[in-house]
Design goal:
DUF945, 8 helices, signal, alpha+beta, DUF945 domain-containing protein
Length: 481
């Protein structure tokens, strides 16, 4: 029964997520993928059954692979075909999961379908109302409570723009081995003619779950993104991701990890033929009880001077791969390998304008002290470069770094590393003295080697790399180290 309930959850979420993904804005109707040519999702879940009813007449049911993008391609192709026959149009579509195992199919025959009611006006504009009703299943071992889904898609005849909004009312799963609860979650997006989001938002108030040994909880997950395109057509934008709290409680190891006020801000911009990407990361508090670690963290990272023309080539290749995936011609594993090949092919152009990586701000605070600093590294694109030639790579690199760290924080880090090697063994007073002596000796050794420069109760590191020469605190260091 527990296996059936797990399959129920998988089928429900697969159906729900499918229509929240963007429909690829290709002018040609996507050809339905043959089952033997498409990668299956594995297990008992085989794919989807799609049945359209047009003008009160049910069309023959068809079956598509379990890849959501393949299903989307099928839905778009079928709608386009019906629109060609005439407008206005009313069409109702029922989407049901298909299972390869006959017993599983029988046991889960009462799973509710995902229903799509589409209306296309005489002007070609379409609206699809989407729903999946509540569903409950329970026996002595486990229970499932799916509270339903509703959503809306709106688009013009050529699918050049799409607006969508969805609401999952909630989900609760409870068994002896695992429990999970998802609160009401909303998602919305506006997509342009190439399906790049001009607006995207997600609000997930709470997700909790776990088993007898460990539990997790996430609260107030909010995503907001506003996209635009540069003069070149390069996809840009600004985004915010925030999570109020994350906790993982491992009862078996008597440890707990808590994160609070996690914030990530993204900003992609373009100036003439160069693009820049910036990421701000902040963590209000990280608490690891097992190691008695209490940390807050702030950083600003930038990727600068990336060649726009090369990025456009990667963007175009990625769009073509999504199209092929939607047509059932490429699965996710093939897409990953193809994308890696595209990036390697574009690499010489990407580095032609001497790109930079800059950590403009890094601040780590703990109860024992702080680490503060930053660095900049640039790659001279005018110099010949071979990734398997370390000397050529070092000669093409230049950069600088400045860091300040409190002595007490260095000691805390070393204590943690050494204590980890001791396992659960409790140290005697004599062992603690010996360990402190070892730490003092290691710090003294690093200072003598020139990697750290004493400054009161702090240490400083100032480094520069230029013309193949690395200077650390005024002392040349051999390369490679």
């Amino acid at each position: 029964m527990k296996k059936l309930l797990h399959l129920s959850i998988a089928a429900i979420l697969a159906s729900s997520v499918t229509l929240s993904l963007p429909v690829y804005a290709d002018k040609k109707a996507a050809e339905p993928a043959k089952a033997e040519e498409s990668a299956n999702t594995g297990g008992d879940f085989k794919g989807f059954s799609v049945t359209h009813t047009v003008g009160g007449k049910a069309q023959p049911a068809s079956e598509v692979d379990g890849d959501p993008l393949v299903l989307l391609g099928k839905l778009k192709a079928d709608l386009a075909e019906q629109v060609k026959k005439g407008k206005p149009l009313e069409m109702t579509t029922e989407i049901k999961p298909v299972f390869s195992d006959k017993k599983t199919a029988k046991d889960l025959k009462d799973l509710p379908p995902l229903t799509v009611k589409t209306t296309v006006g005489a002007d070609g504009k379409g609206v699809s109302d989407i729903s999946m009703p509540a569903y409950q299943k329970k026996d002595k071992d486990a229970s499932l409570d799916w509270q339903g889904l509703t959503g809306t898609l709106s688009y013009p005849e050529d699918f050049s723009t799409i607006s969508q909004s969805f609401e999952i009312a909630g989900l609760t799963f409870d068994s002896k081995d695992f429990k999970a609860t998802l609160d009401k979650t909303t998602f919305s997006a506006d997509l342009d003619e190439t399906l790049y989001p001009t607006k995207l938002s997600l609000n997930l108030p709470s997700l909790v779950g776990g088993d007898d040994k460990s539990q997790f909880a996430l609260s107030k997950i909010i995503v907001d993104f506003t996209g635009n395109k540069g003069a070149s057509g390069l996809e840009l934008g600004k985004g915010d991701i925030s999570i109020s709290d994350i906790s993982v409680d491992n009862k078996a190891e008597e440890s707990q990890v808590k994160l609070s006020d996690l914030s990530i801000k993204l900003d992609a911009s373009e100036e003439k033929d160069l693009a820049s990407y910036a990421m701000h990361f902040a963590l209000g508090k990280l608490l690891i009880t097992e190691q008695e670690l209490d940390v807050s963290f702030v950083s600003d990272l930038e990727f600068r001077k990336l060649d726009v023309a090369a990025l456009l080539e990667v963007q175009k290749a990625a769009a073509e791969m999504r199209k092929q995936q939607m047509e059932g011609k490429m699965d996710e594993s093939m897409m990953g390998m193809a994308m890696m090949g595209t990036l390697m092919q574009a690499l010489p152009k990407l580095i032609a304008k001497s790109p930079e990586i800059a950590l403009t701000k890094l601040n780590v605070k703990t109860s024992e002290g702080e680490l503060d600093g930053g660095f900049t590294i640039s790659l001279d694109g005018s110099k010949p470069l071979k990734m398997d030639d370390p000397a050529a790579l070092i000669a093409a690199l230049s950069g600088k770094a400045d860091f300040t760290i409190d002595k007490a924080l260095i000691e805390q880090i070393m204590w943690m590393q050494m204590a980890e090697g001791m396992g659960d063994q409790e140290m005697t007073e004599e062992q603690e003295k010996q360990m402190q002596t070892m730490i003092d000796q290691q710090i003294e050794s690093v200072v003598k080697e020139g990697f750290l420069a004493p400054a009161g109760e702090q240490f400083k590191l100032n480094a520069t790399l230029k013309a193949g020469k690395l200077m650390v605190n005024g002392k040349e260091m051999p390369l490679p180290m």
